[in-house]
Structure formats: C-alpha cells, structure tokens
C-alpha cells in the first residue's frame, strides 16, 4: 500500500460527503460568483459584510442533517473567490469575526461535525478577488478583469502567495485534525508552481500528515509519477466520469464527483431546481460502481440555514442509506459487466445489484450461474430464490452466456439491492 492509498483508505470507504458553500454571497442570493459575474465594487460588496450576522447559523444542526443523510465527511468553504474568510484569520480584516456575526464560523463547524463523528474538510480558494496582490486585469476569474485601470495597477504576487500560504497554515494549525484540504481552482497559467504548490503541500503535510488533498492545485494526478502537489484524489465537477478515473496505466485512482443539489453552489433563492432523492441516490450508486465518491453540495441561506428543499432530499437519502448503506460504504467497482437494468457495486465477495430500470418479466444476472450462494433484499433481508429460467439454455448462446433470475419478493421498479 503506497502513501496515497494509506491516506485515502477511509475516503474510499466512506464514499459520501457534504459540500457546503456559505459566505457573504448568500445575502444577494444569486450564487457564489455574484461579485464576479455582476462586477460588483468592493464598496457594494462591503454592504453585505456590514450586515452578515449568521443569526441562525447552528453547525450542530448541519452536522446532524449530514449524519442522518449518511454523509461521512464534510467540506466547508473557509474562503471562496470573494476572499471573505469564515475563520478568524490574523492576516486579514475581511473575516466573519469582524462582521455582526462576530464568530469564528469554521471553529464551530469543525467542532460540530467532529462531535457527530464526521470527517472534516476545508475548502480554500486560491483565487482571491479581494486581495490587492491577486492579478485582476485580464484574469478570467476576476471581477475587474475588464477594468482598464486595473491593467496598470502594480501587484506583488509573491506577497499574495505569502498571504495564501499563511492562511492555509492558520487553517491547518488552529482547528485540530483536518481530514481534507479542498483547493479551488487552477486555470490557464495560474497553476502548479505559480502557487508555489510544492512548498505549500510540503507545509500542509508537515502539519497534518494524514490529510488528503484534491487535485486542483494543478499537475497531473494520473501520471506515472505525479507532481508532489498533484493531490490524492481527482475532483470532477457536476459530472460522473463515464469510466471512473484511472491513471495512465489504467489503474483506478481515488476520485470524487462534486455535485450541487440544485443548480448553484452558493445560495440562490430563485433556484428551485432541486434534484430528487432518486437522482441523488442513482448518482451515488453510479459513482461507487466506478470506484468514486459523491460530494453533495448544499448552499445555506444568508442567516445560516439549509433550505427545506435540501433537508427533504437529505432526509430521503438518509432513509435509503439506512436500509442500503452496506451497498455503498466500503464498496467499489465490480468486474462484472454493467447490467442493462442498473449497476453493480461490490465489497469482497458480496455483490450488490442496484435495479434502476426494469422491463417486463424478471431481471437477469448474466455470468452468475452457479456462482451465487444466496440472495437477499437489502432493505428487509427477504430471501430471493435463485432460478435458472427455462429459456436460459435456449437463449444462452445469444444472450452472452448463461444467466439466472431471482424470484421471491417483488423487486420494486427502482433502486433496490440484493
Ligand atoms: O468557481 C468555483 C465554484 O464557485 C464552486 O466553488 C466549484 C465547486 O467545485 N468550484 C469552482 C468551479 O469549478
């Protein structure tokens, strides 16, 4: 087992996490890019700073919701691209402790989620629209990129890197054990050593030797010899990669799909396009069937509360996980070909069949004749009888080999496992 495998063992076991995007942008409620998209001035954005009170923020409630949903780890935005810090950084005044909230919101998050036995991750944006030494003009990820005045503004990018590295050190020194460092994001030439990424990762690992880091500092995590800063897991976003994620030698590497519950990461009051629990569960099964994780995002509102739509989906997800979690936790890809009616996940010699869509008649399990000792419905333990249907022989040559069917409890027409 190499160092990355040792570090990510718990991550591959736990499979399901909660992503939380929360900050000043939750007040305009038009998504976390609102300052960039609307080219807001700092003065305008500071009106949100002056009123941000986190009056209904109770991370114990968030943590209980995550636990009930079966989410085993969480990742909170400690600083997004707008540069606003939810933690009591000594390196800036642009922080929650200087707002009417007057609290270290990260401290409370870490304590509350740890108390529920949930692994703690911190998201940190290397992009910073607020810092005077972060490049603006021409930078595609900056509010004033089209501002001619910004073109001639002298910046000291090394001073920004000292700030950025210093804040990461604060986060990994002052809040106890941190399990995930989730950086966001490299782009164009702003990648890798532009962030002094090797120095940054060495510092991180010197403080938190067991931490896992995403791959968004840059480099190529799939390479034969990835850069030291290439990360411990690949982080596809809003997609589930068709074949999972493998390295250049075809070996599966840790990956996690981060997906929004509606269409926005940060709170967007107009966005009622929430995914159903069924869509979320299918996405989770899809990820695990390809050796991946799902990081499901919620965007709390300006006061610090998760929307009732989010909580409804999380509750339904949790009930499914309560009955079927054995087919997710500690599971991964099966060598069996993907069945036409759904997905397989597997843990050792236990095969879990997730029935997504079924046509008429029984569902077939190809290539398993004589290989199944027993079959049970996962939700209630009901025995399913293994049968070789009369047509099996007749069709075996045209169906890709021998197959069996399961009889017994009427399999629901979706989302069940045996
Ligand atoms: O720009 C961010 C975005 O706001 C959000 O935080 C996502 C989450 O993975 N990451 C970046 C877009 O890739």
Automatic annotation (TrEMBL):
SMART domains: Alpha_L_fucos
Site feature (May be important for catalysis) residues: 258
A GO cellular component annotation in the UniProt record: lysosome
GO MF: alpha-L-fucosidase activity
Domain Glycoside hydrolase family 29 N-terminal: 6-326
EC number: 3.2.1.51
Top EC class for this record: hydrolase
Pfam families registered for this protein in UniProt: Alpha_L_fucos (PF01120)
GO biological process terms held by the UniProt record: fucose metabolic process; glycoside catabolic process
Protein keywords: Glycosidase, Hydrolase, Signal
Function: Alpha-L-fucosidase is responsible for hydrolyzing the alpha-1,6-linked fucose joined to the reducing-end N-acetylglucosamine of the carbohydrate moieties of glycoproteins.
Family designation: Belongs to the glycosyl hydrolase 29 family.
Name assigned to this protein: alpha-L-fucosidase
Taxonomic placement: Bacteria, Bacillati, Bacillota, Bacilli, Bacillales
